[in-house]
Amino acid sequence: MRGRYYKMDERLQSIINVAPLIQKLMPLDCMIGITDREKFLYYLPGREISLGSDLKGRKISTEDGLYHAINSGREHSVTIPAEVFGIPFKSLAVPVKDDHGQVVGAIALGLSLKTQETLLGISKMIVTSSKEISEATKELAESAEELALQQELLNRLSNEVLEQVKKTDKILKFINDVAMKSNLLGLNASIEASRAGDQGKGFAVVAEEIRKMAVNSAQSVKEIREILDLIKERVTVMNSKISQTTDIGHQQVAATEEIYASVQEFSDSAHKIEEVAKIV
């Protein structure tokens, strides 16, 4: 019976022999434990992950994943938080069976989740930051769009002002024509009044007033035209600047929308990183 037991132990010994190689092949820090049905036969700590002492010869605890794997005949997996041993890790215990399907022991792999937790922390930070940036960018895009709409309104208003100023040119031309005709009429009236002698003196006064009114009207038309020309010039410049600003506003809207889309993609990538980290 004793010899048979050690024959079974040879299967476990083979696993013990390759345990260091298994550890080297693992991309993450890990520890390995191998037991028979009652106690630890071998324990290999990781670079950082360790249970603190050599477990060889120690009886298997009923709380251990190895115990559950041996007694159920199925693999057993559990995640151990950092609060227990200082480093979070995932424990996977697999029963070892003989040629007859009888469980003779088990092997457990403790895989460090330190990198996973780091990835999860980074991904959550990225998601939070991306959300804040997305909200700020969205608000900026909305503000830029509102600004562009207001600038378009100003552009339309300035164009309307220019049209109204252009219409005054016709009015001023009409007033100027009236002033010229009034001046000519006053001049003719003065000539006729001088021919009439004393009898035309009263008429001469009226003719002179008509000429003065015509001259004053012509001068007023000139001054008004100069003012309107200056207004037209200023409004034209203002219209040009508004158009440029409107174009910039549209560009800003487009740029912020692109930024918003990029941030959303960045956030999606962070979620994917989080999902990948959970695979381990």
UniProtKB/TrEMBL annotation:
A Pfam family reported for this protein in Swiss-Prot or TrEMBL: MCPsignal
Cross-referenced InterPro entries: MCPsignal_dom (IPR004089), Sensor-like_sf (IPR029151)
GO CC, alphabetical: membrane
Positions in coiled-coil regions: 126-160
Domain Methyl-accepting transducer: 159-280
Statement: the UniProt record of this protein carries the keyword Coiled coil: yes
SMART domains: MA
Keyword list, A-Z: Coiled coil, Transducer
A GO biological process held by the record: signal transduction
Protein name listed in UniProt: Chemotaxis protein
Organism: Heliorestis acidaminivorans
